[in-house]
Amino acid sequence: MRRLKNYIRHNLHFFVSATFCALTALILDMFNPRIVREIVDKVILRGNLELLPKLLFYMSLITFSRVILGYFKEYFMDLGGSRLAYELRVDLFEHLQKLPFSFFDGINTGELMARIKEDIENIWFTFGFGLVFFIEQLFYFLIASVILFYINWKLTLIILMLIPFIGYIAYKLEKENDEVYGEISDQGVRLNTTAQEDIAGIRVVKAFGREKYEIEKFFEENKKNFELNVKQAKIFAKYFPWMDFLTNISIGLAITLGGLWVIRDRMSIGTLVAYSGYVSMIVWPVRLGGWIVNMLAQCLASLKKVEKLFREKPERLYIGESVEIKEIKGEIIFRNVSFKYKDDYVLKNINFHVEPGKTLAIMGITGSGKTTIVNLLGRFYEPWEGEILIDGIDIKRIYLKALRESIAYVPQDVFLFSDTVRENIKFGKEINEEVIIRALRDTRALGFVNILPEKLDTVIGERGLGLSGGQKQRLTIARALVRVLVGSAKILILDDVTSSLDMETELYIQRALEEYKGVTKIVIAHRVSAVKNADEIIVLEKGEIVERGTHEELLSLRGKYYEIYQEQYGKYMFMEEELV
Ligand code: ADP
Questions:
Q1: DSSP 327
Q2: In what order do the strands lie in the sheet with 393-394?
Q3: Second label for 40, Cα 20 to 30 Å away, from 222, 275, 282, 324?
C-alpha cells in the first residue's frame, strides 16, 4: 500500500481539484431548493412577479456554474485516475518483466492478464470516479441532513427513521450482487479462455473434426454466463422496487406530514417543496451507499492482488560480488552442477568444459534435462549445487543483462511477435540491413522472405502472414545469429532447433554455422547428423551424463550413442553418406 500512497501523492493535485469542484457544485446545489421555495411562496402564492427574473437568474447561474464545475470535476478526476492507472500499469509491467521463470511457471496467463487489465481498471475506476463520488455523496447526505433538521427537526427525525431500511436494502442488494458479480467475472475469464483456445488451436480442432465438441464446450460456458446474468437481473428485480417504494414513501411522508404543518400554518408551501428537495438529496446517497462501499471494497481487493505481484522477488541482477566484464570470450564450465525444479533432481552432478569457439553437443531423450542445462547457463534458474563459469567467472556474479546479451539463444519453442520480419530479427537491437540479410542467407530464409509481399517489412505472427513451422524456425535462428554477427553474443545455443527443418536445410545451416568462428556453440539435437562434428558430445539420461566424447569416440564405445547412430544411420543412410 505504500506504493499506492506514492501514486496518490503524484496525482494528489488532480484529486484535490476534483473534490474542490465537486464540493463547490454541491454547495451551490444546496441553494436550489431555497430558490424554489422563494418562487413558490413569493412568486406563485403572493404574485410577486417582479422577483421571478432575479430568482430565475440565480437558478440559471447555479446551473451554469455547476456545468462548468462539473466539467472540471470530470476532467481532473479522469486525469488523476488515468494517470494513476497509467503509472501503476507501467510499473507492474516493468516489474513482471523482471520476475524469474519460476514465477511464470506457477501462474496462469489468464490470471496475470486479469491483474494487468481488470484489477487495474477497478483501481482506475475508483480513483477516476469512485472516491470523489463517495466524498460528494457523503457531503450531500451530511449537509442536506443539517438543513433538514434546521427546517423541521421533528419531521426530519421521522424521515430519518426510514433511512436505515433503505440502507439495509441497498446493503443486501450489493451483497448478493457482489457474489454474483464475482461469479460473472470468473465465468467471463472461462468464456474468454474457451474462445481464445479454440481460435488459437483451430487447426487442431479442424484436423480432429472436433468443431461440434468445441461448440458444445463454448455453449456450456456461454449458458453459465447467461444464467449468471439472469441471476443478477433477478437480484435487481427483487430489491430495486423495494428501494423505490421506500424512497417514494420517504418523499410522500415528507409531503404528507409536512402538509399537516402547512395546514397548521407552521410551514410555508415553498418550504415544504424545498424540504422534499432536500429529502431526495439524503435518500440518493443512502441508495447508492451499498454500491459505493462495494466499489471501494473491490478496489481494495484489486489493490491487494496487485500489491502481491509487486511483492514477488525480481531476478537478482547478480549474486555476491559483481564483476564487470568488458568482453566475453565464451569459455563455459559446468562444475558439479545439480538442479531440481521442485522435489526431484532434474540434473545430477553435471560437469563439462567448453573452450571458446568450440562446440558442445547434448543428446538425450525428451525430459533428460537438456533444456535445463541451457536454462541454467542463462541464469533462468539458479543451480542447487555446483557452479557455472563463463570465462572463469561464476555467472552469478556477472550482471544478468551482460550475461544474457552474451548468449544468443534459439529456444525449442518457436515464438515470433506480431511484427515485421525485420523487427522480429532485430528484436530491439540496432542491426543493419546487411547483417540481417547475411543471417537470413545463413538460415536459408532469404529466399522465402524475398517473396513475401513486403519482403523484410511484411508483418508476420498473430496478426500477420502465416508462415510454415520450418520458416518460423529459421527466422528464430536468424534472430540469434544477428547477435553473433554484430559481436555482442559469444555463445550460441541451439535447443533442438533443426527438428522441424528438412535434412537438406539442416545441413545447409550447419555448414553456414561452421563459418561462425570464435563463437562457442551448444547444440541440443536428436539427430546424429546435427552433433557429429561437435568437439564434445554428451549423452544425458535422467539428468546424468552417461556418455561423453567425440563422434568417433562414442561410436567406438558402442553404447547409447552408438545405438542412436545405428537407428538413424539406417533411416538416413543417404544423408549420412553425403555428410561423410
Ligand atoms: P529435455 O530438454 O531433455 O527434454 P528438460 O530439461 O526440458 O528436458 O526437462 C527435464 C525435466 O524437468 C523433465 O522431467 C521436465 O518435466 C522437468 N521440467 C522442465 N521444466 C520444468 C519446470 N519449469 N518446472 C518443473 N519441472 C520442469
A1: -
A2: 345-354, 332-340, 385-390, 393-394
A3: 282
Which protein residue's CA is at the shortest distance from atom 18 of ligand 1? 341
- Calpha distance 364→541 (Å, rounded): 6
- pLDDT of 484 > 90? The answer is yes
Which of 491, 452, 489 is CA-nearest to residue 474?
452
Nearest-angstrom CA–CA distance, 487 and 480: 11
For residues 405-423, average pLDDT: 91
Please identify, by atom number, the ligand 1 atom nearest to the C-alpha of residue 342: 25
pLDDT digits (tens, 9 = 90+) for 6-57: 888 889 999 999 999 999 999 999 999 999 999 999 999 888 889 999 999 9
Is the pTM for the entire model greater than 0.90? no
Closest CA to 136 of 289, 300, 251, 294: 289
Going along the chain from its start, the domains and CATH numbers come out as 2-310 (1.20.1560.10), 332-579 (3.40.50.300)
Q: Which atom of ligand 1 is nearest to the CA of 105?
A: 23
Give the H or E element holding residue 443. Answer: none
Kindly give, in sequence order, each residue whose CB lies less than 8 Å from that of residue 579, ignoring residues fewer than 6 positions away: 507, 529, 532
State the pLDDT confidence band at 88, using cuts at 50, 70 and 90.
very high
- Longest Cα–Cα distance of the chain, Å, equals 120
Q: Which of 371, 413, 497, 538 to mutate to test the pocket of ligand 1 (most atoms within 8 A of CB)?
A: 371
Q: Which atom of ligand 1 is nearest to the CA of 495?
A: 2
Q: Whose CA is nearest to atom 19 of ligand 1?
A: 372
Mean pLDDT for the chain overall: 89
Q: Are 167 and 218 in contact (CB under 8 A)?
A: no
| CA 428 to centroid of ligand 1, rounded, Å | 29
The predicted pLDDT at position 355 comes to: 95
- d(CA 232, CA 185) in angstroms, rounded, equals 12
Write the secondary structure of 94-136 as one string of H (helix), E (strand) and C (coil). HHHHHCCHHHHHCCCHHHHHHHHHHHHHHHHHHHHHHHHHHHH
Q: What is the pLDDT of residues 301-317, one digit of tens each?
A: 888 889 999 999 999 88
Q: Predicted confidence band at 108 (pLDDT cuts at 50, 70, 90)?
A: confident
Asked if residue 376 has its Cβ within 6 Å of ligand 1, the reply is no
> Measured between alpha carbons, how far is 486 from 436 in angstroms, rounded to an integer?
10
